[in-house]
Recover the amino acids of this structure.
């Protein structure tokens, strides 16, 4: 795994990372640069029902995201076997990336709050690698409406721009 040390905030270059996906491929954030926008979602825990619902919604809207020139990366702070079980249980059209030591979580300032509550986040990184949308929280209820909000944001981000 490789990491840059740039702080993630709206308008900044998104910190790069490379993680192993449940399909066996290594995926880097820079793989999308110049090609597609990308939604990055950090799952709080495999037991979080709101996160599971949100990831399921991202899967249901995946074709619409692709039509809008946007891909989806979902990151889980677990070992590969648990991540595969999670992905298979939901039936996702995209792989889940494994971050077992949560180094990428920490890179994106998603350390555990008061050492108890895992922080989670949703980002949109544009084709240039710039963070355009960022929502961090310890309260996973926000994810219940997030998928549609993300689709609306993606569509507004690319208004007037030809989709490659």
């Amino acid at each position: 795994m490789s990491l840059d040390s740039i702080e993630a905030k709206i308008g900044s270059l998104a910190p790069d990372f490379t993680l192993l996906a449940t399909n066996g491929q290594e995926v880097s954030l820079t793989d999308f640069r110049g090609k597609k926008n990308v939604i990055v979602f950090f799952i709080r825990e495999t037991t979080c029902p709101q996160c599971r619902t949100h990831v399921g919604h991202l899967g249901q809207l995946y074709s619409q995201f692709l039509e809008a020139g946007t891909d989806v990366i979902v990151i889980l702070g677990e070992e590969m076997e648990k991540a595969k079980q999670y992905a298979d249980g939901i039936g996702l059209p995209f792989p889940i990336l494994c971050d077992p030591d949560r180094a990428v979580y920490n890179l994106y300032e998603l350390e555990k709050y008061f050492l108890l509550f895992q922080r989670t986040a949703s980002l949109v990184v544009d084709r240039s690698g710039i963070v355009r949308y960022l929502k961090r929280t310890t309260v996973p209820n926000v994810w219940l409406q997030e998928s549609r909000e993300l689709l609306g944001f993606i569509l507004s981000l690319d208004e007037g721009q030809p989709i490659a």
Observations:
- The first strand starts at residue 18 and ends at 21.
- Strands lie at 18-21, 26-28, 37-42, 70-76, 96-98, 120-125, 131-137.
- Residues 33 and 127 are 5 Å apart (CA to CA).
- The chain has one domain: 18-152.
